[in-house]
Design brief:
This protein is mainly α. Helix content is 67%, strand content 0%. It has one helix and no strands.
Length: 21
């Protein structure tokens, strides 16, 4: 994710994981 930073990207990935994507 170029728009998001490494930390932000990791948070986004965790968010998607929470949804089970």
């Amino acid at each position: 994710y170029t728009h998001f930073e490494s930390d932000e990207g990791d948070k986004v990935l965790a968010w998607f994981r929470a949804f089970g994507r």
